[in-house]
Input
Amino acid sequence: MSQRTAAVIVTYEPERETLLRLIETLATQVRTIFIVDNASGNLEQWQQALPPAHCDIIRLSSNEGIAAALNHGLARAQSETRIEFCALFDQDSAPSADMIDRLEAYQDQLSSRGPVAQIGPYFFEHNRGIFLPFIEFRFGFPRRKRDPGNGTWTTADYLISSGALLSIAALKAVGNMDEALFIDYVDIEWGLRAQAAGFQSYGAFDVRMEHRIGESALEVAGIRLAVHKPIRRYYYYRNALLLCKRRYISVAWKVSEMARLGIKFFVFAAMSKRRAADVAMMTKGICDGLRGKTGKFEEAGRS
Output
């Protein structure tokens, strides 16, 4: 068990058995587990089953979003003595039994190359049935890096937050997660901000983790796209536009992301089973992004 790493799990209406499996896997790998619950209605259903020696629940009175929840957990981790790293997890992730030790070893190895922001595992995404590549921009174009077969590490511009092992030193230098985004692009923004501050992110092809993104997948021309609830479409389009206004994010990323989301707009408008709701939320997200609106989405007539 590592004494150098704390884990932060963000929960919102989790599936009990899936969450307990995650905690059981992590309990033998990290010093402390901080569970930040975004006002779940089913907390009592799984709280009593947690191992008290390893879990500390931070219960929020309302859904503050992923960024704020992570910041609550990261603050608690930083208050612990001798904690050097913090591993972040969604409630439905499935890490391997030795993931923390292996990521720590990479952190130690790669620190000789310069300041390390974070290192994360190679994701197998169940809904699409694929390993998700690490992304790095070179010469203005995104490179999608997949396992070359020799089980090594690679540089990346940012990581999916779940499974990422963040350096506490980098967190102190770069700053907290951006709560203005609420949810979506939180991990991308922090990775790009860390990169602009001189901290490198890495991906480890030989460290694996399983995860699900979205509710299902939509296949278009042989490509499987993650399908989310319409509200998530709002955050994608709004937050992408918000990031496009920030100077520390490269022009190449902005152009690439706008092109990608432009294509997805037409795909989901034409092929989604919830096309009317998707179009409405994507359009609302674009309008609010252009206006600079941040924080949690509020329906008309609600405060």
